[in-house]
């Protein structure tokens, strides 16, 4: 399907707004992360550059959790810019109603969402794994193989030449909810991803229910 000129214009405008909003939130996440990582560098007396490096590694994972909010801000900013330039009235006068604009935005949002789920999530998981590896290298207790933060529970497990990163958004005693298990090789090349609604932990085994394997 060939894109019309107004669709190309809307597509570029939406992407531009999405990028600017994402960049703003990324900077905010980095700043907040830096304050968090300062405590780590003070605790283990590491070089100061680790504060920024660790913040950059952890930021993509935190960004993934707030992308729905970013989409909301992007759409609002998108419509405000169209209204400020009276472009909505121009579209209406050329037979392009609000439904056509909204329908096109839904398609663009779906495409961006699929990209984030398929590619960005795998990328952020690899950085999160690297983040945990670095932190664990400074700790003799392996305390960073399992991390609990605002995103939920993160567990990293290495079995032979495979690396497993388990992320549960919610957990209660022996029950995990909204789980994603990413399997990579030792070079962090993604091999498979398992997405499940919930799982039970019993006798050191993970019983997964209602899962999707990619």
- Radius of gyration using CA atoms only: 21 Å
Count of individual domains: 2
Main sheet properties? 6 strands, antiparallel
What form results from the Cα inertia axes? elongated
Query: Can you give the helix content as a percent range?
Result: 55-70%
Strand content: 25-35%
Number of helices: 4
Uncertain runs with pLDDT below 50, 5 residues or more?
A: none
Distance between the termini: 28 Å
Question: What would you call the structural class?
Answer: alpha+beta
Order of helices and strands: HHHHEEEEEE
- What strand line-up does the widest sheet have? 1-2-3-4-5-6
Task: Tell me the number of strands.
Answer: 6
The averaged pLDDT comes out at 79
Structure keywords:
6 strands, 4 helices, 2 domains, alpha+beta, 6-stranded antiparallel β-sheet, elongated, 214 residues, 57% helix
Topology:
Layout: H1 5-44, H2 49-84, H3 87-93, H4 98-137, E1 146-149, E2 152-159, E3 162-172, E4 175-185, E5 190-202, E6 205-213
Antiparallel strand pairs: 1-2, 2-3, 3-4, 4-5, 5-6
Helix pairs in contact: 1-2, 1-4, 2-4
What does this structure look like?
The chain has two domains: 5-139, no CATH class; 151-213. A hairpin with a 2-residue loop joins β3 and β4. It has a six-stranded antiparallel β-sheet with strand order 1-2-3-4-5-6, covered by helices on one side. The protein is built from four helices and six strands, in the order ααααββββββ. The two termini are 28 Å apart. The chain has helices at 5-44, 49-84, 87-93, 98-137; strands at residues 146-149, 152-159, 162-172, 175-185, 190-202, 205-213. It has 214 residues and is of the alpha+beta class.
